[in-house]
Amino acid sequence: MFAVLKTGGKQYKVQSGDVLRVEKLAAAAGEKIQFNEILMVGSTIGAPLVAGAGVQAEVIDQIKGEKLIHYVKRRRKHSSQRKKGHRQQLTLLRITDILEAGADATGVKAAIGAGSAPKTAVEAAAPKKAAKAAAPAAGADDLTTITGVGPAAAKKLVEAGITTFAQLASVDVETFDAVKVKPEWVEQAKELAK
């Protein structure tokens, strides 16, 4: 039985026991991974993917591909030349199983590209912290509904302790120096606080 899987923007026709070089995946040598983007199993063609199908593989090693030379030469007088080399990061795999159905319940780690996986726990937690900071506190008004107040100004107002329209409406423009508050903002806040 064969399957057509998709990884790294490319499609591969594989059978059990095949050794395959694909773009670098976030997995260590000896680890078992599973590809869930299966385009075809045997003669079953999916639209766009075959539901419940999967291909399991064992990572043999993380390797580099052959060196590719990129050479640029401009002809005629005063021309320039440039030579650059590159070796692509690859993962060497051995296909172990092709599953026509039930791949969702196997519990094997899904194969993801190395560029899309967070490198550390700190990087993984960073988007969550940013989302919490961006979300307004309970009972707070959305200050960006006021004309002229964007996300940056709203953040400065929240840092200064102004979270509601009523608090902004009670601000004295001349004496409040934490944030440059415009008189139009105060007028709009008075209308919205009603």
UniProtKB/TrEMBL annotation:
<dbReference type="Pfam" id="PF14520">
    <property type="entry name" value="HHH_5"/>
</dbReference>
<dbReference type="GO" id="GO:0005737">
    <property type="term" value="C:cytoplasm"/>
</dbReference>
<dbReference type="GO" id="GO:0005840">
    <property type="term" value="C:ribosome"/>
</dbReference>
<dbReference type="InterPro" id="IPR001787">
    <property type="entry name" value="Ribosomal_bL21"/>
</dbReference>
<keyword id="KW-0687">Ribonucleoprotein</keyword>
<dbReference type="GO" id="GO:0019843">
    <property type="term" value="F:rRNA binding"/>
</dbReference>
<keyword id="KW-0694">RNA-binding</keyword>
<dbReference type="Pfam" id="PF00829">
    <property type="entry name" value="Ribosomal_L21p"/>
</dbReference>
<comment type="subunit">
    <text>Part of the 50S ribosomal subunit. Contacts protein L20.</text>
</comment>
<dbReference type="InterPro" id="IPR036164">
    <property type="entry name" value="bL21-like_sf"/>
</dbReference>
<dbReference type="InterPro" id="IPR010995">
    <property type="entry name" value="DNA_repair_Rad51/TF_NusA_a-hlx"/>
</dbReference>
<dbReference type="GO" id="GO:0003735">
    <property type="term" value="F:structural constituent of ribosome"/>
</dbReference>
<dbReference type="GO" id="GO:0006412">
    <property type="term" value="P:translation"/>
</dbReference>
<keyword id="KW-0689">Ribosomal protein</keyword>
<dbReference type="InterPro" id="IPR028909">
    <property type="entry name" value="bL21-like"/>
</dbReference>
<dbReference type="GO" id="GO:0000166">
    <property type="term" value="F:nucleotide binding"/>
</dbReference>
<dbReference type="GO" id="GO:1990904">
    <property type="term" value="C:ribonucleoprotein complex"/>
</dbReference>
<comment type="similarity">
    <text>Belongs to the bacterial ribosomal protein bL21 family.</text>
</comment>
<keyword id="KW-0699">rRNA-binding</keyword>
<protein>
    <recommendedName>
        <fullName>Large ribosomal subunit protein bL21</fullName>
    </recommendedName>
</protein>
<comment type="function">
    <text>This protein binds to 23S rRNA in the presence of protein L20.</text>
</comment>
